[in-house]
Amino acid sequence: MTVNAGTGTAASITGRGIVKTFGGFTAVDGLDLDIRSGEFVSLIGPSGCGKSTFMLMAAGLIPVSGGELLVDGKALTAPLTDIGIVFQDHLLLDFRTALDNVMLQAEFRGLPLGPAKARALELFAKLGISHAVDRYPKQLSGGMRQRVSIARALIHDPSVLMMDEPFGALDAITRTQIRHDLEMLWLETGKTVVFITHSIEEAIGLSDRVLVMSPTPGRVVDEIAIELPRPRPAHLGDYPSFNTYSDRIHEAFRRFGVIKY
After folding, report:
1. What are 122-166's pLDDT values in tens digits?
2. Cβ atoms of 6 and 163 closer than 8 Å
3. For residue 55, what pLDDT is reported?
4. Do the domain assignments include residue 71?
5. What span, in angstroms and rounded, lies between the C-alpha atoms of 254 and 259?
6. Residue 216 within any structural domain of the chain
7. How do strand 13-22 and strand 25-35 relate by DSSP bridges?
8. 151 and 102 in contact (C-beta within 8 Å)?
9. Distance between CA 186 and CA 201 in Å, rounded?
10. Which stretches does DSSP call E strand in 23-167?
């Protein structure tokens, strides 16, 4: 199924018994999950557990080896076009300004450039980087480059935003600020977000639900509904339930030998 770009809606993603093998290696085995329309869901688990593999399958970039993967109730058989992806590496072109990097998405998709530029400038303002419009990537901090990559992923108004460790290379202060900026943007747009992270605090701070994955072959071993007020505060430890959620994730990792103490 190919989803039209720029629908402005939010899609659901459903997995039933998903299996993914690479030769004789099984990366994901029996993965079941439901991501509802407009929901912010984080996948957290040890390195190599299949988080990024699931994201690539859910984007239609690699096929499942077994099981069923549905987007809005329809089998996924081709790459999604109605999607934005943000990786840990910003992947910006050094020879294009920040704005031109964002506009590259509009050019590739054949979007009307006038409205696309207006949308890009709006996203720059909401992400706090209006002053960086004409700067080149080498003139931007790591956090600013990631904000540009988020704007690029959203310029076509996709129904799903997928993010693979997008803040992994950033310092703690920048991660806290950009986490807040992303949450506010999500609250405004209502996109479905699939967020991959190794950070327990990040997962709890952003998500409606956290899906905890086992070591390879990956599957969901716990599902935690995060019931904290939004927008979330910078100091999540002020809420006693934060420690409850954190302990539950740690316990899952201890149970599977990911953390030993």
Report:
1. 999 999 999 999 999 999 999 999 999 999 999 999 999 999 999
2. no
3. 94
4. no
5. 5
6. yes
7. antiparallel
8. yes
9. 18
10. 25-35, 40-44, 66-71, 74-75, 83-86, 160-164
How many domains is the chain partitioned into structurally?
1
CATH of the domain at 185: 3.40.50.300
Alpha-carbon dihedral sign for residues 205, 209, 215, 216: negative
Looking at 104-113, 208-217, 250-259, which range is the least confident one?
250-259
Look up the domain containing 41 and give its range. Answer: 37-48+80-255
State mean pLDDT over 27-46: 96
Per-residue pLDDT averaged across 209-221, rounded? 95
- Token duo for residue 7: 């629908």
- Give how far Cα 205 sits from Cα of 79, 152, 180, 231, Å: 30, 23, 9, 9
- Give, to the nearest 10 degrees, the angle between helix 142-154 and helix 113-126: 140
The residues facing 162 across adjacent strands are: 85, 194
Q: Are 64 and 18 in contact (CB under 8 A)?
A: yes
In a domain, 139, yes or no: yes
The model carries a pTM of 0.91
Q: Are 86 and 162 in contact (CB under 8 A)?
A: yes
How far apart are the C-alpha atoms of 259 and 241, rounded to whole Å? Answer: 22
Task: Supply the pLDDT for residue 8.
Answer: 53
What pLDDT, on a 0 to 100 scale, did the predictor assign at position 3?
Answer: 32
Average pLDDT over residues 10-36: 95
> Does residue 58 belong to any structural domain of this protein?
no
Strand partners, 210: 42, 224
Tell me which residue has tokens 């927008």. Answer: 231
